[in-house]
Amino acid sequence: MRLLSHLVVFIAVAILFALGVWQLDRARWKEALLAEYEAAADRPAVDFPYASDDPPLFRRSAVTCERVKGWRDVAGANEAGRSGYAHVATCTNGPNDFAVETGWSTDPNAGRDWTGGNVSGVIGPDGTYGYRLVSSEGLGGLEASAPPSPDAVRNNHRSYAVQWFIFAFLAAGIYLLALRKKIREERADG
After folding, report:
1. CB of 123 closer than 8 Å to CB of 148
2. In 152-161, which positions are buried (b, 16+ CB within 10 angstroms) versus exposed (e)?
3. Strand partners, 14
4. What secondary structure letter does DSSP report for 54?
5. 1, 127, 145, 150: which has the fewest Cβ within 10 Å?
6. Under 8 Å CB-to-CB from 138, ≥6 apart: which residues?
7. Residue 145 and residue 77: Cα distance in Å, rounded?
């Protein structure tokens, strides 16, 4: 029975340790991705919408919104960092639907009179379409939104790795303490 408990704890500790190593690998991957995002501002503009599952986030782009199909508002900030609403239009160009952040305001219903047109800006993440074009100027009477920035992308993988290593250490330590107690009890009964 003791052999089985040793094996179970060993496997659990090994899994926890492996998760820590995996998070360290993820941290290195995320650091490379963030470096790529930082360099994006210096690269040439790209087409929008982008025809790939891996959009060129934080790159400059431009598009013509032929027609606005709908609106949604998300939490956002203006260029001064003030919190409010970012207004996102669902645009269409024939068969393609895509998102354009037209600007910022403190009123959730502002900017609805914008019906489309030429937009230039920076590609940022979007919860619905995966990415959206954030206009570099406010459209439809809105203020300009804060441009998307790689600084907003979190990289917590190193702290997650530390947590997994601590869990592995604690699991091993608790098991060793329990085993030590069990051995003492057996000797006392013995």
Report:
1. yes
2. eeeeebeebb
3. none
4. S
5. 1
6. 102, 103, 104, 111, 144, 145
7. 6
Structural domain boundaries enclosing 179? 2-32+155-189
**Chain centroid, CA 106 distance in Å:** 25
The residue to which tokens 């069990």 are assigned: 182
Helix ranges (H only) for the chain are 2-40, 157-189
Question: Quick check: is 8 in a domain?
Answer: yes
Do 22 and 96 sit in the same domain of this protein? no
Provide the mean pLDDT of the chain. 90
64-78: per-residue pLDDT in tens?
Answer: 999 999 999 999 999
Q: Between residues 86 and 129, which one has the greater pLDDT?
A: 86
Query: What are 134's two structure tokens?
Result: 């954030």
- Does 110 share its domain with 167? no
The residues, ordered by sequence, that sit 6+ positions from 82 with a Cβ below 8 Å of its Cβ are: none
Write the CB contacts of 39 (distance below 8 Å, at least 6 apart in sequence).
none
Q: Residue 185 carries which side chain, given as an amino acid letter?
A: E
